[in-house]
Amino acid sequence: MRLGEREVAIVNTPLMEELEKRLSSGESVLLTGLHGVGKSVLALTIAYSALEKGGAVIDLASDTSNFAEYLRIAKRAKWAFAVFDAVPLQFYAEPEIWSEYATLWRDNCNRILARAEYVRKNGYPVVIVLPFDLAERCKKELRLYDNIVVTAEESIAGEIFAKNSDVYCGEDYVKEISSRISQLGEGMYYIAYSAAKSLEFCDEHPANLVEKAKRAYVEKLTALAKAVYAPSCSKAKAFIQTLHSRGLPPPLASLAIYYETVEVKVRTLEKFTSLINKIPDPHKEYVKILALQTAEDLKKLMKPHWHLRALSRELGPLYNEALTKASEEVAVQCGYKPSEVSLRNLVKAYVIAHEANNDLAKALAAVARGENPCLGKIKPLCVHGALPDVIIKAILTPERLSVELPPSLKSGLEYYAGLRAEEVGERGWIEVLNYLYEASEGGRTDLRVFKDYIDAALRLGSPITKKLALATVQNSYIVPGELLAQALVTAVELGEDYGALLDKYIEAVGDASLIYEKCGARCANVVVEVGVASATKLARKTPCLALRQLEIALAGAGYSDVIQKYSPHKACL
Fold first, then answer.
1. For 354-400, where are the alpha helices, taking DSSP H only?
2. What pLDDT, on the 0 to 100 scale, is given for residue 103?
3. Which of 109, 151, 277, 545 is the most buried (most CB within 10 A)?
4. Domain-wise residue ranges, the chain
5. CATH 3.40.50 fits 2-150, yes or no
6. How far is CA 258 from the centre of its chain?
């Protein structure tokens, strides 16, 4: 077999025999896997074997006249099958030319699969060869095929290297090479072959040899990524934005790709919503229709395109490196900089478009109680059955999004999620505290959601309210550092035992400055203990930070003038 001007020695695998048996029995197969794990070699080897045995191979990517000729040849052959390979072996010799097969699949997968279906109806099996990302294109139609996932194997990498190298450096050298290549999980065939051909002397370290081959491999995949995802500057923009947002849940990632448009539509919807309650009936209905149309436009933007699904898959570190490299290069070429995306605005767009105000409030109440917030219309924002912490933080910063988008619910934590603490007064604080304290006795309560209520109760409540707030903070699983600091200050003011709170603060926050700023010399004992304990924790890894904690402890003990005079931590800067 040839790769450009060079001969390639092929390694037979058990998978080759399995594929040949399946094709002989008339089964059609989809070969998928990471890039460079031998999918194309497998298909090409079977094709050569078929030709040697008097068979025929039908090229599904050929033009119309050649396709018709292939079918005529197939009728005269002993047996035949059809094949389409989106990234054929020749790609690794001439990426710019052979990447056309990948773009052909991107743009015309329906036509290729229609041909494949015609071939199958004529009694010939089909082999479709696709890397994981391109297998997201025409995914529904591909479900008709038996999927064989090809993976990298260490022994095969060693055989490829040994068979294609002109220099033999012993079994240990081959094992070291194959071990390093197989650890990559992708690019096995090309990297092993490239390393073999570049080896001149046995004193070259295996790590350097593999690294050089790996760099060449990434360059080739970079060319492929540009051809498939960024063939023009207009498409490069979507590609770059997709890479930046692919870790988000699909609806939010889709919105992020069109962020400028989303911002405009959210502002428009907010204006329509405020107008609906201010204008008389004849005009109100018209504004409602406009609002519904804008919401539908947002929903359309939330539907993930195939390239988002493709780039969100597990693609392997080397291909991800190539994708990043491609995005950086096309960003320079096109003069494009990714938009700064506000995750909070994306969630806001989603909630407004789906009229999910009530479900948002329910989800926040569930987070606060330590329950699963993946409820109703909020469920699509969850990943693996949980709402990502980064989304929770976006919803809560700078304040609960449910305050901006209040629910229509009139009871429970859901009701209070739509209001600020200052709007409900102490009676409301007590009700929220009762809900949270009850939940804290049997769950993993999260006080971030109602931080303003707890803070108001700790600072401004009656002694009974403050004690209830202290008990809630002490029992809760997730407590913001500022709340813990305020709880300690309140406990000192009330003369309550603060030992458990102190341990919790040292473990979770480990910074005496928050308490010193809030309480100063009034909390001297607390500041000293937190400062010394925090310094002990920090001493080994970050001695300068540990020194700063000791300074705060001394300041809390009344020696702030000495600290200001000498400032020993500045010697660390």
1. 357-369, 389-396
2. 96
3. 109
4. 2-150, 154-228, 230-347, 437-507, 510-573
5. yes
6. 18
Q: What are 403's two structure tokens?
A: 């305050």
Q: At a CB cut-off of 8 Å and minimum separation 6, what does 50 contact? A: 56, 57, 79, 80, 81
For residue 455, the tally of other CB atoms under 10 A from its CB is 19
Residue 471: pLDDT above 90? yes
Contact residues for 138 (Cβ-Cβ < 8 A; gap 6+): 109, 110, 113
CA torsion, ordered 181, 187, 193, 199, to nearest 10 deg: -50
How large a percentage of the chain has pLDDT more than 90? 64
> DSSP readout, 275-310?
HHTTS-HHHHHHHHHHHHHHHHHHHHHHSPPHHHHH
Distances in Å between the Cα of 484 and the Cα atoms of 432, 476, 520, 535 are 18, 11, 16, 19
| Amino acid letter, residue 430 | I
Q: Are residues 339 and 242 in contact, defined by beta-carbon separation less than 8 angstroms?
A: no
Helix, strand, coil percentages, rounded to 5, for the chain: 70, 5, 25
Find tokens 């473990």 and name the residue.
507
Q: Where are the alpha helices (DSSP H) in 376-496?
A: 389-396, 401-404, 412-417, 421-440, 451-460, 463-475, 481-494
Residues, the chain? 573
pTM: 0.83
